[in-house]
Amino acid sequence: MLVCRVYDFYPKTIKVSWRRDGQEVTSDVTTTDEMEDGDWYYQVHSNLEYTPRSGEKISCMVEHASLKEPLITDWNPSMSEAERNKLAIGASGLILGLVLSLAGFIYYKRKARGQNPLELFCRSPLVLMSLVFNVD
């Protein structure tokens, strides 16, 4: 699903439409009514239930009294640097959470068995000694 969100416009009347390779798309489109932002401006969201194919140009077109000509925004399948950073931070947080959860689980299980829970991480060195006698 593709989403086109339009914020901070006044007056209320606006037209949001979708285009595929320059032709208007009318099927599988749902658009909300204009919603008040609470600061005298409005917003509207439009959804297109469609998965773009390679090479297709999908656009959201906005027509409003404040615009001299329609505002056309093309869908770009590549992620921006900010989106990549958010994804990397989220994945790192997830991995860290899993590692800490696993360490906590191991700690709990060892403690429940009566073993020293830190034994997994800290262990006394094993000392082997042998006594050798010379027999003459």
From TrEMBL:
For this UniProt record, give its keywords in alphabetical order, as a comma-separated list. Answer: Membrane, Transmembrane, Transmembrane helix
Instruction: Report which superkingdom the organism of origin falls in.
Output: Eukaryota
Query: Is-annotated flag, keyword DNA repair?
Result: no
Q: Which residues cross the membrane?
A: 87-108
Q: Which InterPro entries match?
A: Ig-like_dom, Ig-like_dom_sf, Ig-like_fold, Ig_C1-set, MHC/Immunoglobulin
Q: Which Pfam families match?
A: C1-set
Task: Determine if Transmembrane is one of this entry's keywords.
Answer: yes
Q: Could you tell me which residue ranges the Ig-like domain spans?
A: 1-73
PANTHER family, per the entry: HLA CLASS II HISTOCOMPATIBILITY ANTIGEN, DRB1 BETA CHAIN, MHC CLASS II-RELATED
**Name of the protein in its database record:** Ig-like domain-containing protein
Q: Which organism is it from?
A: Fundulus heteroclitus (Killifish)
